[in-house]
Each structure stands twice: as structure tokens, then as C-alpha cells.
Amino acid sequence: MRLKDISIYVHIPFCVKKCFYCDFNSFAGMEKLKPYYLDALIGELKMYACKLKGYKVRTLFIGGGTPTTFTLSQLSLILDTISSLYDVDDGAEVTVEANPGTVSDLMLRGLSLRGVNRLSLGLQARQDHLLKLLGRVHTYEQFLSSYYSALKYFGNVNVDIMFGLPGQTMDMWTQTLDAVIGLKPHHVSCYSLTIENNTPLGDMVKRGILDLPDEDTERQMYYEAKRRLLAAGYRHYEISNFALPGYQCKHNTAYWTDSEYVGIGAGASSYYDNIRYKNADDITDYIKKVHKGLLPIEEFEYVSEREKVIYAIITGLRLITGINLKEFRERYHVDLLKEYGDVVEKYGDMGFLEVKSGFLRFTERGIDVSNTVLSDFLR
To answer: Rounded to the nearest 5°, which phi and psi values hold at 321?
Structure first.
């Protein structure tokens, strides 16, 4: 009998410095907690190992925060624990996130020897003044150094870039695009800056200290990214993600196709056996719970069949190919075009949704208003 698929996410919440735009569960200046947190991670991994008998790990993603603020030996302990306790597929995608300037050639080589086969590097912008404005801890030259080192050991490297930044012009954006395309990474994640409350950047924008590009310019930046990346041979497979053929991120695709996953670490989320869990955000609270032999779960909810359908619609429409209507009907026992015919017709008439070759998907114009369209499915 084929084992069920599972993805594992391990959260490392430590950073050298917290970026000014970031509202993720991450912290700077808490280095003294690292050894205790590592012990807790190993403890939580051991608790889940017995629960996941009958599952095969298809993807593993170590993210943050900045995972590479851990030492090679600390990251190796996590990787070795997973490989010894879990049934990991021989072809599993194993990703580690890294910030430029926090990785050495020795660390990258060591990670590759321990089974990591994909590295994700956060660049964000080509211009050093924009990196400084964002609170990044690296320069473009440091990114290049880390990137070229990564290519020596990994055959799959992602680069993150952002548009819609304060003070960013179209020329600056195209310079970033051209620089990244010229480096030929296997995957490019291309995100629009989201201004979050309770972040330094959000506060500066609210107070009028920084100005953002207007909405039309921000959309033009997105279209320009798509045009240049497609021309360079990348496939646009998800709203914010582009990959050379064969290099789509398997871990993130598991989320978008409603697959099961387990999140390990402070603030991490899990979804399996029709239940969603969320761990305690606070690092100290997380450590205390695990050391007491308790799963550090702060919230959980049972997922109804209706909620599963809605989640599958919202995530599935993020994919550029959209939702395979036949497979959707077979998996969820719902005829999407009948159940949500009024929504599909409404936005189809407006040119935002289309049914083509058995798939429901956003049109190019529809991507621009995707949040509005998706909200109509939440009924």
C-alpha cells in the first residue's frame, strides 16, 4: 500500500536583524535561546514521529526567520533527526532558506552533504539603498558572493525579489529583474511589498515619511516581471512564482494543492487528519511546553467538508493553470461550476475568470483583483 504524502516545515525564528517590513514570527537579539529552542525542535520532531507512521515525507522546508543564523552542526542535527525518525522519500525536495551574508562556503557544502538539495536566497532588490531602507543586513555584492557559492553545491536555487518598494522606480525594478535573470537562478519568487501594521516600514508609510509607488505603477512592475521572466524561459506557475521547466517548488505546491503538512517550531502550522493546528508563537512558551512533554499547540480546529472545499478553491486558483474541474469533483464530490456557478458566471462576464480545457482559472486581468474574486467564494 502506498504511504500517504506529508510535507514538513521547520521554523527557525531567529534573525540577525528583523527586516522593517516583516511581521513573521521572527526575532532578533535572542541568541541565548538558540540551544534551548533547538532542543525543543528535536523534542517536537520526536513527538510527531510516532504520529506520522504511514506517511512518507515528500518535501522538507526549513524556513524562518533566518535558518542560517543556526550553525551547520545545529542545522545538521535537525536534518539528521528527521532522516532517522521519518520515512523520507529518496527524491524528497529539501529546502533551506538563507539570507546573503549569513552563509559560508563551508556551511553550504555541509548542508548539501546532509541532503539539502534546494537553497532559497532572499535578495529583494539590486540597489543597496533600497536594501538598507528595508532593513536588510546584506549588500548586493554579499548576495552575489552567497549566490555563486550556492551554485557550487546546489542544482536548485531560488531568489526572492520584491516590487512596490518605497522610492522604487520602474528603472530600479527592471535593473533588479535584469540582474537576477542574468544570474539564471532555477526559480524566482517575485512578491509585491505588503505594508503590515505594527512594522517599522508600515509606521513610516503611515506617518508620510516614505511614499509607495502608485497602484498603476505597482501593477506595471508585476507585468514587466512576468514579461521579462517568460521571455527568459521561466514558467509562470503561481501568482508570485516563476521557475525554469522542472524546478517548480514542490513544497509550496503541496500547500496550494491542499496536501497535508506538519509545522515544527514556534508559530508553525499543521494540517493533517482534517485538523488544523497552530503552535504557540512565543519562543519561551514553545520551549516550556515541549520540555514538559506537551505538543506546543495553541490553536486547533476541525476542518469541515465545506471548509476543505473553500480552502481548495482559494489555494487552487493561485496556480496559473487553475483548478482541474474533473479532479476537484472526484476529490471533494462537488461540481464547482454548479455549486459556485453564479460566482464563476459573474466574474467570467467581467473577464476575470475563465473555464478552459477543463480548468477554472484567473485571467491575467483577474489576477489583479484576485482577493476580491476569492472573497465571493467565502459564503
So the answer is: -70, -25
Distance of alpha carbon 191 from alpha carbon 209, whole angstroms = 23
Query: How many helices and strands, by DSSP H and E, does the chain display?
Result: 16, 17
Q: How far is CA 166 from CA 92, 195, 201, 211, 278, in A?
A: 39, 10, 9, 5, 33
Closest CA to 42 of 87, 79, 88, 92: 79
pTM: 0.95
What is the assigned CATH class of domain 305-375?
Answer: mainly alpha
Could you tell me which CATH number the domain at 4-256 has? 3.20.20.70
CA distance readout (Å), 111 to 88, 95, 96, 107, 188:
17, 10, 9, 6, 21
Query: Of 85, 73, 65, which Cα lies nearest the Cα of 10?
Result: 65
Segments making up each domain of the chain, as ranges: 4-256, 305-375
The bridge status of strand 27-28 relative to strand 187-192 is unpaired
Q: What pLDDT score does 211 carry? A: 85
pLDDT at 1: 56
- The residues, ordered by sequence, that sit 6+ positions from 118 with a Cβ below 8 Å of its Cβ are 93, 94, 95, 96, 154, 156, 157, 158, 249
pLDDT score of 28: 86
- CA–CA gap between residue 253 and residue 260 (Å, rounded): 11
Is residue 80 predicted with pLDDT exceeding 90? yes
Calpha distance 377→349 (Å, rounded): 16
Q: How confident is the model at residue 2 (pLDDT cuts 50, 70, 90)?
A: low
Q: What is the mean pLDDT of residues 5-20?
A: 94
- The candidate with the shortest Cα–Cα distance to 97, out of 132, 60, 56, is 60
